[in-house]
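Dear colleague,

As promised, here are the two records you asked about, laid out in our usual form so they can be pasted straight into your sheet.

NAME FIELD: protein one
SEQUENCE, THEN STRUCTURE:
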Amino acid sequence: MAAIAGVLPQGATAAPPEPTGKWVVNFEPAQCIASRSYGTEEEPLMLVLKAPVTGSTLQLFVIRKGRKGSAAEQLKGGLAIAGEAKAGLSVLAYSPKGEARRVFLFNLPRDSVAAWPSKGSLEVRAGASIREGFALSGLQPLLKIMDKCVADLRDYWNFSDETIASKHRRRAEANLIRVFSANDYPSISLREGDTGTVRVVLLVDPTGKVADCSLVETSGVAVLDAQTCVLIRERAQLRPAIGVDGKPARDVFLQRVTWSM
């Protein structure tokens, strides 16, 4: 675990709320997550970033106080960096089971987030449910640490592509079509006529179980992105990879899933 002390931005009187804690990066075995508090114990407000082992998408979570058992919903949202607005984002809002929290999930291009350190402030919105501002500081060293975390994650899970020699005698294998059925189509997407293709990366342990599923390319529809990983985590069982030593090994598996009616 690493913590980064941010330097608060100097700005006008109407500056967005300043953080109440440092950036904290959790180097977990299956994911790289950075979080920072902007609230209090009574009124929690968190900004969270999750970087996948590969791909160009980074997930942004805004977490605040909510009600237990609130239904998930898909919202039209957007964000503004130092006043420069980006609209038309699909946002998933949900409440973790048994928790009095509300989570708002944005899927963003990694390259766009790389430009944030020079911008100073972030504002997010999702329908009428949330409009929150955040003073951005300490992002430059944070993103470097996140890149190091992802590099370590790739090494741990034996990631290889066309530029890296494989550490496997046989890669993990699966036919994930059978994981999905027509009954899995989210009802809100059926009502809205939403379709799209999601690309995800799976971290597969030596038993063939999925240790993590992360978004690599978004469909542009938040609920389809989320449903893809939910079902894969719950149901998928892969044929595990075999290392050069002949033993079952960790591996990284990329998968495209197309949702169509």
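NAME FIELD: protein two
SEQUENCE, THEN STRUCTURE:
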Amino acid sequence: MPVIWSYSDPADRGFGLFKRRIFNTLREMGWDARLALAPLLDPASKKTLRDDLLKTRPGWILLINQSAGQLYEYLQLDVESWLRSTNKIVWYLDDPRFFVDRPFEPVEFAFSFDETYLDFLQSHHPGGVGFMPLASDVDRVGVMKNHFCCDVCFVGGVIDQSARRAQLSPEMRDYVDRLVERKLVERGRTFDELAILEPYAPGKCIQIQPQVANYLYWEANNRYRIRVMESLSDYDLRIYGNEDWPVLLKDSPLLKKFHGRIDPVTELPDLFASARVNINIHSIQCLGSLNQRDFNAPLAGGFLLSDWVPAAPRYFEPGVEAIYWSDVDDLRAKIDFYLEHVLECRRVIARGRARCERDHHYAARVDGMLSVLRSFPAARRAL
């Protein structure tokens, strides 16, 4: 079977976890899957990874949010012909418009977690394009822990952008605020489209560069998540996430609701099982797919209320296997209802878990990815 290579930081609880799940699945399918581990913040790690790749000379390379050209630059590789002819799977777990800055190689096969972005990927001429959504990656049902018990809980990240914002002129700050607020109303539109509808000045449209779009994206996510949480501040609410939360909440009554980081492997399943209602707030880039919480919460035994996204019925039967909310008034009404109807929560959890166990695990995702690859002649010959 083919040799496939990738790399990860052993402490990485994000993309590193996804790679480990995929590589474990590939090994079970008979692949020789080699995941090189190194602390990525250590400058010496680049040589370690470079040497490992050159020694392994794999037939396939798996990358996340990173093209082959970006890998070569990151590892400071002298690109030999064998490496350029090595097949690559590039899986985008975020909007690829933030990352794709050049044409793909003919042996790069680009996958997106969200079907919305497939046309964009195709426009950069990879060897093929495919859809590979996220899946459940918790490996156990959570256990109720007293120190995690609460009525309502949210786990997720925000990004402090104060340093980037300080570099903008007052006029530009006002403009990006207008774009962000419009994005929160018209989530299906790109920032490029919004810049045309909302010009900087009459007759003056600004081209949105990837780094600007990234700023706007995180600013919209920050505001969306904080506003939803502020609407729930009168509940027995807990927020878990990264260290940027206290910075953004310094003037908010929500600050006392923040409880720090939580480990996604050792603690998150127990938190899902201990909170009576878990809130899911999708990133604004989720249009044709779901996020990790949609799959992990029910598998861990947690009851989840997710904000509605158009792709939801593709994965769960709404109202039966998963419950969705449309706005903060609807969210509050559903929190109140399900806090009073514990048995119905348990029924939804059981149905959602059964659906995840049947359809939304990494074995199914990898099998789907390989089926797509087999549809491309160049990839099929290498499988």
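A couple of things worth noting about protein two: The two ends are 8 Å apart (CA to CA). The mean pLDDT is 94.

Best,
R.
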